[in-house]
Fold these 4 entries.
Entry 1:
Amino acid sequence: MKELYRRVSEGLAPGDLPFMNYGYAEPRAGNYDWIRPEDRHHKYHFSLARRVLNGIVLHGKAVLEVGSGRGGNCDYLARYSDAASIRGVEPCWENVAAASHALTRHRIRFVCGDAASLPFADNTFDVVLNIESSHCYPDFAAFLAEVRRVLRPGGALAYADIWFLNTLPYDWPARLRALESCDLRIEQEEDISEAVFEALKQEDGLSGTLRQLEGDANRELFSQLRRGNEAIRLHLAAAQCRYRRWILRHP
């Protein structure tokens, strides 16, 4: 995945493609009214972040995003919440450099690191956010253990990803058991497959953004990414995978 992200970053300006998640389509157009007009082109991604964080108090909190990519969710947190501090950790150095260059607000910092070995001390954060990243983790249980380690007592993990996709080489029931038996208490669990499916259908969603950024140097790669998005949409339509979110609490 680091190699894929390195290739994606080639030829892009630091502020280009801040989101690579599938997004979340609100059931009614008016539900985007909370998003500032200048941000409406990211409305599906902003809505996904807000939905995943639903029910979590961010006021004055220290927030970590694991798998921060090119910085879009951290930017959302900085501009639409009053979190005290926001950290993003990401294994791809090119993404870290792009996000650090594009997002210079004082509350945000990005570092390079691995989800299974987070470069932070114990009990550092009140909230950990993880969106559409864990399907890249071969050791899912180690990620959960690291989240518990860096969370303060009473802190929360806001987590969402694609699940049960048979093209990924995982024992999905075992991963689900790891989630349900980890030392974090499940507070919320929700299937949001339909809303993610609807976001993937939209011309102004992720595939449209990739199409706009295509150039001679990256056309083949970006076309491949768009085909991948379409494949996920079809898998969701056929109920061959699910998109789920959880809130888990450190006891």
Entry 2:
Amino acid sequence: MSLTHKKIILGVTGGIAAYKAAELCRLLVKAGAEVRVVMTAAAQQFVAPLTFQALSGQPVLTSLWDAASGDGMEHIHLSRAADLLLVAPASADFLAKLAHGRADDLLSTLCLARTCPLAVAPAMNREMWAAAATRRNLEQLAADDVTVLGPAAGEQACGEIGLGRMLEAGEIAAAVTGVLAAGPLAGKRIVITAGPTFEAIDPVRGLTNRSSGKMGYAVAQAAAEAGGEVILVSGPTCLTPPAGVRRIEVESAAEMRAAVLAVLPGDVFIAVAAVADYRVDAAATQKIKKSTEPLTLQFIANPDILAEVAAMPDAPFCVGFAAETERLAEYAEAKRLWKKLPLLVGNLAQDTLGQDAAELVLFDAQGQHPLPRADKLTQARHLVRHLSTLLN
């Protein structure tokens, strides 16, 4: 990770996660960035400005009335030379300020007067994150082209568990690299499916596939690192979405199809999800009671999302995945040709499902490109580099 010569304004708002901002500042400086820290009054209740001054090597700004610029216009001057304004942690209160254009302290005024991109790393209690007002504010920020990094799920300082934790400093620093880098997917809209689907039999039972979602989430992270605008349509998993990635949660194949079509058009569609091929024709509305008699279920085919997207008149660059248990090369290439895909990723399911590493083969018009066994994020980065070459 290199941020050499990048100028980053790090805004710190009030919250226990402010302690993570100190480590974030250190990592950004270590990566070569020039960091100027701006703190709100509430942030100073958690971490002293002297900490950030020592880590950044720069004076910390805390008030609209700081005279660092000599003309009282620091809120104007700062962003003019900056490559990025990053607010971490961004409290629920500060997100509301941004969404409504309030400017009542140095940091909020700086955000309103900025000429550089703005990214925020939210941190708050899970109920505050789920509140309708916060959701509306986030929708407005997305419409205003503000990049939202996280949050993550886990145990919170209040003792509750859920979404709202600020991403770890290393995750945010990696995301910043992707935001600032003119990567091979910069300016591209990337739609990715991941995880399994779940097809209801009755209210308590269903059909699913053995998929952890790890490969799809790794591809989403690699695409974001390459500068893409990534939308991840995910079936049920226990995974946290990568920094800077927008996740849409679905359950069934029909829901996944609807979500994919809703976010298209795009530049690239990567179908990593293990979509159930079949669903019950008529799922029971009440629990099917156990019996000693045989149970017969009528199955019908689910929509083939990848084939449908690839057949669109304005189809994006489509990448498929084929998890086989035998004759990988034969079946994977046949699938690529049948669906008319420029690129397909093949693997043997028994060597990959649920594991952190994978051995993959890329199939395209030029032939086969084996990727020796490695962790899934490494493989995802290889895949993104290869598809970027084909795409460009």
Entry 3:
Amino acid sequence: MVGARKPEAVGGVGDSVRTVVGLEIHVQLGTLTKLFCGCEVRTDAPPNSCVCEVCLGHPGSLPMLNREALELSIRAGLALNCEIAPVTRWDRKSYFYPDLPKSYQISQFDHPVAENGFFEFEVGGETKRVRIRRAHLEEDAGKNVHDTPGCTLVDLNRAGTPLLEIVTEPDIETPEAAYAFCTELQRLMVHLGISEASMQKGQMRFEPNVNVVITRDGVEYKTPISEVKNINSFRFVRDAIAFETSRQTDAWEADNGYVLGEKPNENRGWNSDRGVSDFQRSKEGAEDYRYFPDPDLLPIEIPSNVVARFRDDLPELPVAMRKRFLVEYGLSASDAETIVSCRATAALFERVVSLGAAADVCGKQFVNVWASLANARDVTIGELGVSAERIAELVTITVGGMINKSAVSKIAEAMVDGDASPTALAETMGLLQVRDTGATEAWVDKALSQNEEAVGEAISVSKKAKAATGFLRGQIMKLSEGKADPKMVGEVLEGKLRELRGE
């Protein structure tokens, strides 16, 4: 674990290294249009086709706030246990870059929409809490494209897209904790419908601010802070923090003047191919951006009754729901995590169980069968179009022994493609299990007669007895074409083998 090196790793007696991480997370809000104009938010449009005078920064154009973006920000702030500002206002953050057509970004500086919150998550079975310093609204910049040799192209479709920037306090001390935090935060954003939060589409980007505290001979030394920019992978967040801890410790060992305040903070980029961070530039401070109130946008009042309404409308959050599923339905931690990862899927699961389906079997079918079918079609389980009543019937006939486990996937796939009940499908497809003692005995007798060597091993006291018995079960199921009830097969087979042993 990088966050707590052994003393001898630094070199001196009693030395230690502690990693300190704060995160800045940019979440693209799930609105149809941009933050201050009516242009569509799209990732599949031709370059520079979703633009207008406002997001291109033409002189005389005036911004108009997207109400939905503000409401989504309030919901996110409440889910992060933040205080919602009674008045929030807009500021211009000035800097020059090719993908920022106005040469300033509309953001929020000293009056963010939400601040002073916290977020709890689990790492290795232990609950951790990270304080949330602030969550503020801002518009995204465009995108530089480096696909053409010898030049850089600019696509401004993304310019003006609404972002929620979440800033934590430096409460994270290990790469593993950062990984868990980012994973859980993404789940929360998706669960609440605040964002699709797709890493591949750039809808959630992480910027860890990392430095280390080195203790030597009772004296603490803090290295300069490195902000690793625009990471779009949980694994890369973890790897970047681990690398920075090692790099900064080595830099301090080589130069004891490499300390906070004496050397500048840095912006660095993560090179995932090489597994290293590369220096980009010295890190800017707030004064470098020359913040001032935007003259074209009025402050926004957020009445307390509006905040109360949003708070009352918040659904059960993922962490609490997973814990409840463990206790109430007896699911495994991994099954609960998979089901709760989609709010609609969790609701469908609870509806199925409320119809009388066994929760444990239902959970396994959701994770192993329905999730697989949904992933293959790039939809959620709820979007497969199979009703809770039909899913509950599939669970019931499975528990009742009418079908075996291998038949469940075939029937479920047929349920997606048609409207027939699972019982009717099992009958039509010849998958109903035979619970007839006479038929089962006939299959067992035939298997025994065709496999004399295996029978001899099964009734012996050798180490091969267990494997031989399993082989015989498989032969019986094969003879029955999968229709025999495995439990009944086991009972009849054991009885026959006892007879042959003379017991």
Entry 4:
Amino acid sequence: MALTVLMNAGPWLPVPPPGYGGIENVVATLVPELRRLGVRVVLASVADSTLPVDELLSVFPQGQFAALQKPYNQVMGIAHAHLNAVVRALRERDDIDLVHDHVEAVGLAVLSAMGPGARPALHTLHWDLGKHPDLYGYVDGGDRVRVNGVSAAQLARAPRALRDHAVGHVHLATPLAVGADRRPTGEKADHLVILGRITPGKGQHLGARLAHEAGFDLVLAGPVGPYRRPEELATAGPEADQNPDVRYWREQVAPLVDGVRVRWIGTVAGADRDELVGRARASLFPLCWEEPGGTAVIESLALGTPVLAVGRGCLPELVEHGRTGLLAEDGDALADLVPAVARLDARECRREASRRFTPATMAERYVELYERVRRLPATAAADGDRTDGGGRR
């Protein structure tokens, strides 16, 4: 395929990231499969990104994620400096056919402002679409800028102006899904796990409370703000409290973490993550928000671990109740479902992951969207939010 895509991952973390990094992990999963399909990829990231690409475009030598804990007026120029380099490349080069943008808010705003003569762009929405009502309520990318969601539920909650730019949604993928249906089932331990960034929407405070009340062991795995390990947070200075996730941890989660019934082990990745999740009785998602994408959900299924979750956001799209997991109406109802998790078959979880959530499936879908964005007339955009991740109507 003679197509060159500028993949804008942003300035916050390298690709792939060293542990947690939702958007950067999505990019790291997508790009190799795009290149396998013949797409040439120019990656706009930070200089210490190690993902094999055709070309790397960077402003910052390292990821700027730690700066996000500082006041906005001290860090507001970081994303703009990165986008300035992207715009300059688009103006100075004629070999880029399309921009695939992943930079929250700023990416969509800058690309839309470039006007009708600029390259077509697809902006992927990875987050809660209620966050930026002033942008999403009035966005106008003309005939050139389109958006896609990471679930149908996410796009359904989008403001009308944003939905009018939508060309559909693409469910996330994980390399763990490749060959998952052929992987042997290992022995399960007694713990449940919550994998992901520790933040109010993920509901770690609720999961920890339920663990104590219902008597199950729970492992929390993920960063608190920029702090990847417990010892890093323990030695952080008073400036750490400027980060809302740190305040959430200290006020609502840490009092319930006793090191026995509930443990926090920090960020895990690679084989350590696979071992932790693969041996868990279930992955717990006591969600307090409308989860848009659910990377940890599909990773759990690929590792043969059923999902126990509040059925909010994308969860009903990813989990088949009674087959690959159990969905509750609210957090308090989750505890009653814990004993039933043992009746679910790990092989069914793996089969579903290998069928729906492989990187190849995601890449093929994105290539379809790239071609659609390049040729789609403005009047057809509103039809896109009725197309699911598999191309079905």
